[in-house]
Amino acid sequence: MMTSTMKAPAKSAYWAGLRDGAPFILVAVPFATVFGVIATDAGLTLAQAMGFSILVIAGAAQFAALQMMVENAGIAFVLLAALAVNLRMAMYSASLVPYLGAAPLWQRACVAYLNFDQTYLMSVSRYEARPKMTVPERFAYFLGVATPITPFWFVMTFVGIVAGKAIPEAWALDFIMPMMFLAMVAPMIKSPAHVAAAAVSVSVALLLVNMPGGIGLLIAAGAAMLAGALVEVWMERRAQ
């Protein structure tokens, strides 16, 4: 077992991460379950949906890619949508380098795979609060945060798939996906730049709703990012 090979300080850091990550199970369970349900409703097989969750392990990117699949988008557009949603992971990785860059390759590979919002946010907060942590302790803490979340993401995806197969087609679950996106996005709209980005994305998406293969959604996403950036620059200049 991983913890049995850790030294005492690293083991202590691991259990601290496990404790701090446990509350996020309450988030992973409903999101993973709903993903399993709508993945089945979208026509994915058990192997495809489970492979999706295991390989990608990124809720927002999975929902974005699945939405593009439902829109019958080409594989290139599906990948672009998932990449656009997950661009923040590149920033997460860059900010983790000062703390975990000296770790062995296999540990950095684990961090890359398990690097999602919860593990990143909790770990960086811990590292900043305790700058004297060693690299093994930092890795152990990161792994601890991921330990309770990751298995539940996989298991509840499976539960959602099984539940989705039991739901009659007449119930039509198409409305679930936009509701999930609203649940994820709404709490993040906190500034005028966010409001502008949301307004532009909705407007452009509605104008381009008849474009084939989900192209309209990608154009709307690009327009939203541009609008948000312009408003942010304008606000900074105004503040100066």
Walk me through this protein's architecture:
With about 240 residues, the chain is mostly helical. The chain has 2 domains: about 1-170, no CATH class; about 190-240. Helix content is about 75%, strand content about 0%. The chain is built from 12 helices and no strands. It has helices at about 10-20, 25-40, 45-55, 60-70, 75-85, 90-100, 105-115, 115-130, 135-165, 175-185, 190-205, 215-240. The radius of gyration is 20 Å and the shape is globular. The mean pLDDT is about 80.
Secondary structure elements and pairings:
Elements: H1 8-21, H2 25-41, H3 46-56, H4 59-70, H5 75-85, H6 88-100, H7 105-113, H8 117-129, H9 135-166, H10 176-185, H11 192-207, H12 215-239
Précis, in short:
Belongs to the AzlC family. The chain is an all-alpha fold.
Query: Which value, in Å, is the CA radius of gyration?
Result: 20 Å
Number of strands: 0
- Ranges with pLDDT <50 over ≥5 residues? none
Gross morphology: globular
The domain count comes to: 2
Number of DSSP helices? 12
Index terms:
single chain; 240 residues; mainly alpha; 2 domains; 12 helices; globular
